[in-house]
Queue: 4 jobs
Job 1
Amino acid sequence: MIGGKEGAFNIEVVFLTKRVIQERPFIMSFKKILILFLLFYNFAAPCWGKGEKGKLVLFKKIESRKEMYMAGRLCDIYFAIEKDQDKVAMNNMRNRFCVGEYSLVLYGPPGTTVTIYGQYFYGKDRGYFTLTKTDDRKVSIGNFKSFEDQRWMVSMANKKNGGFESYFHAGPGFSRNFSSIKWNEIP
């Protein structure tokens, strides 16, 4: 069966093979471009905008199990505020009237400063707390009783916490009532 259907089949297979080989440089260049793009994205993307963002996260510690059970659906566990979003009055925060003390975590680049007031419209009568980061690591504050009243405090970075500078002006029930927040201001 020379020159029959088998020969036609062989010629077509050879033709398709040549066609795939001719198109292969396009496929190879596409793969190279895709690999280079993925490498660039994986290594460069984490650096885009690094150090420009910041966030303050407030946590409300509910003291008793009864309070947690009774107000559990009414109280948020945490409240996040992005950098440069000043809050004149935090009355829209659902856990404002829940019994308990606040703790906070501050993220951002060195020099990120936030002031938390115990009174609406940045009033100082009910106390305020100013926090400035000194490195890139997060800063966690869990207990405001450890800060001295009307004194600047410098804390160096350790295994659990980043470095920071703070000023605390005590007020009645300050750690239970955060009412307004101002970024990049030292009163």
Job 2
Amino acid sequence: MRTIATAYYYTFYQLHRLWSKIDNPLMSVFYRAELCIMVLKLWLFLVVYGYTCVLLGIKSTISIEKPIGFLPIVLVLLSTHYLLSKPGKWQSYFEVFEKWPRRKNRIAGLMVWAAVLLIAVNLFISIHLVRQVKN
């Protein structure tokens, strides 16, 4: 379980570092990184849901009026708020990540960005496959 938490906070750390390099007076760095985490979670849900529909041969549409549409949004908001609302928790992880050797940080960073790319590519593939399902 600790490994999953470390991966989650390291992903947030990478996004936080990315957004800290881009100046935007309208949104804080923390908010932009948090928003990216929420979007990634929703995309991951859509990928899993899309592939499930394809495997089961179900033609599905996601609507905000159905539980399958609003429940993931609520779960993403609650989980992100719970995991990132206590600054001491994620800041302590940041301190640990800053002390990592440069090589370890690079490898972990590549893994994070590969996972983000994998989620994004699979989102488009799953949407394409769901559209081809005939019911």
Job 3
Amino acid sequence: MELTAATPTVAIIDSDERAIAPSRAALAALGYVVGWFRQPWRLLDMIMEDCPTVVLIAGSRADHFDRWPAVQALHEMGCAVILATNDPTARHELFTTPRGRCAVAAVRVPYDLRAMLTAVTRAVQQYPANLRGGATTPRAAAQETACQARSA
């Protein structure tokens, strides 16, 4: 795949580099530009103007997703955010709370490669206009409205 300005980019935020290595390789093989970061603030410092297409963000604890401020900040910057967590409450919030609606999907950790690739592909296909300022699907429009309401 030839890299262009339209090539989808995926940033992965996970402190365990070994756990994410197969996912990074699979995404790169599919033609995505992939970056890896241990902490959300490292990515936030770099993307003030050019947000990745998709951000896969893992919680810092295996049993509790604790990255909600980063999820909201990334969403507000125009990124499609996918939660990586074993926290069933966080996965439930994805569909039921304003902060949960700032994410587009959730995948379990350890990573199920097929589920992760499906979530990333779906995010790239379904949310491109939302990522650049205009929602194209009912879920994307509802998601944007919910996050704006929470931010107000």
Job 4
Amino acid sequence: MNQTMLGPWMVAMLAVRAWAAGSMAAAPASSVQVSSAATISSLYGVDRLRDPFGRWGSQRGESRPFSLAAFSIHKLSLRAVMKDASSEFALFAEEETGASFLLRQGRLYDEKGKAVPGISGSMNIKTKSAALTAADGDVQVFRLGSEEAG
């Protein structure tokens, strides 16, 4: 065909087709290089974020291991009061060890899901408060947003 009879867009399309047929088939596979410098933690730094249950300014590795023998309801702080489809629950953290606890349906559970013996509790989601009672009758009331309620 005579190029003078074809429009400029048709000439461009024929040139692209000819280039693609010739140059794409000849491209060596070794020209692609893979970089192993980027890792998930370097791209998405979630591992450097603060643990919401940890103490301010402390790192997870600095905390002591949790011991039930040294447990006291007075060492806890209320971190959250929530409600799901089945019940209300409150999240607590022990300041010294960083251990977290869950109050649900009147029972306090540790991080492993085991009930803490001798501890019962109640909560009011409207006032964002919770109360824990020890086996000896000692009561600690917590309010979200305050250090200690009473």
